[in-house]
Amino acid sequence: MLxxxxxxxxxxxxxxxxxxxxVYDQTDLxxxxxxxxxxxxxxxxSEIPNDLNDRISSFRLEAGHMAVVSDLGSGLGPGxxxxxxxxxxxxxxxxxxxxxxxxxxxxxxxxxxxxKGTGGDLSDEPSVDASWYYRWxxxxxxxxxxxEREYVPMSWGAGGARDEALPDYLAMDQVTHILGFNxxxxxxxxxxxxxxxxxxxxxxxxxxxxxxxxxGLRLGSPATREEGAQNTNGWLNQFMxxxxxxxxxxxxxxxxxxxxxxQPKANPVVPASQIFRRFKRYLSNAYHRHRRPLWITEFNxxxxxxxxxxxxxxQLALPYLESIGYVERYxxxxxxxxxxxxxxxxxxxxxxxxxxxxxxxxxxxxxKMPSIWESQDVGNVGLPGTxxxxxxxxxxxxxxxxxxxxxxxxxxxxxxxxxxxxxxxxVDAILQRGDSKAGLMIRETLDTGSKHASxxxxxxxxxxxxxxxxxxxxxxxxxxxxxxxxxxxxxERQGDVITGSYSNDAENWTTLSEQTITLxxxxxxxxxVSSQNDTNFCDTIFKSLSLSSVSDDSDNDQLPDQWELKxxxxxxxxEGGTSNYDGxxxxxxxxxxxxxxxxxPRSFFSSSPTKADNGFLEITFPGVAGLTYTLxxxxxxxxxxxxxxxxxxxxxxxxxxxxxxxxxxxxxxxxRIKAEN
Length: 677
Description:
The protein is mainly beta.
């Protein structure tokens, strides 16, 4: 059956460009909206329009912009950075420390860059296809201009954070980030940190760093040497602890890594896989300690190692950096020793070609879980786990004493499954030595002793089918040694029979085990990760996740059973999709189509109509694959006045664009977007 939805109606005067930020004095965009029209100016205290100093509770940020807010007019004190990358961002309620307390606002255009960058401006050399760079300075360089590649200034030492330096950052209207001090944990040689003031003194560094908040840009921590970042009582941990206690905003953590812990001078020839394993563990520890995105601004396999080892390491590390959700950007550091460099005699070396050929993905992707999935720790884990979703990749990080015995402790990303079905995923990488487990699970409840069946992998070449057939009973395991490497995993449920399989190619499957386990009709199914150790994490990268159910829509109401069970816990509340449970403008069926929450009136479909540079109308909105979206316009809303001007059928979920290219448009239009399924 065809169902036609009018998703959104709007009125847009084409002669007016929408403000990038609209703030409200009530939650849920309530009260009178006040535009913040200028993109580069700082608004502080009484300069905030409409007498809204200390009176802002919610806002809408237009796609393609970043906003920094703080509770002090100077930009100091509790603050937060908000990014609307490819779709509008609605903040229905500010955090408690900022609610009715915002006295500083800066809005700038957001620039979408890829992860891969370089240290230094390499524009005079053959391209390594990097979309951003920095120069260990706030100075962009003589004769240089802000162009195709994003420039990120650095406050290299104390001088870059003094009051007199701040106008330099404000003058760069295409800059969105500032890198913090360079190896400020080093008191004895480079970075100027051995001078006066001594930034290697943590309180001194904190005091200078906080001044960078005044410019209203996204801030990176000081980048320390390995020992400064990885030790529990290292310099970076001390800095972060003191900065957080002083309400200093740090948006991401910058790191350096050269594998010095391996004593490379004495051990120059080691397998690249060992170097890579230490690198992964280093990044994991840093992320879980500080819970912020990571920028690796300097790294290589060490200057004492030959080109072939550098190349082998890069071939392992680069795809990993692109895949893992908590790594936002990276920049390889050329040893400049004749080995592992990008260039030789004006030509790309083998190292340069490897770096150039690595396809890079967007550096910033909001962690927005698909609507049917949830995640939580099961059991009393030692360290709280996380799930990060970006670009179809799930990074699931779990601790816990393990999956097995009479009770489980792990991190679980799951969704309801009613009746028979199957789940398939590609386990791209597992980070944790030893007996960590990661893979698929069907589980009756979220209790620690629940009945379950799991198809799991370990980092060192084990495929494991584990199952608990009774509540709080013992766990059985079927184990097979397999070559290490990425695998596809599959779990199937048919009645009481659950089958676990693995594959190299998702076509030729090897069945590891088939067990009869009596489970409830309604179960949980998803991704399970445990480090098997309460003091460590196991970070696992999953790709190409797919779920199918025999009873996708057992009540024939055009709403998948999994979706109804997730939001309503039953199949009857929605009344065939025609009801409007949360009382907003869309029915439950419409909310399912556009991926919003049918139980939350603050969750609704939105779009961003703007006037393009060519004078045409552009509308961006979140689209869903499998639907056809049509833009219709009317001059006066009279019967029969709606005209179709454009349509799109997305091949994948995500931001979409519809436009109206009539050059002689009137000063105002009524518009609506329709979706057909």
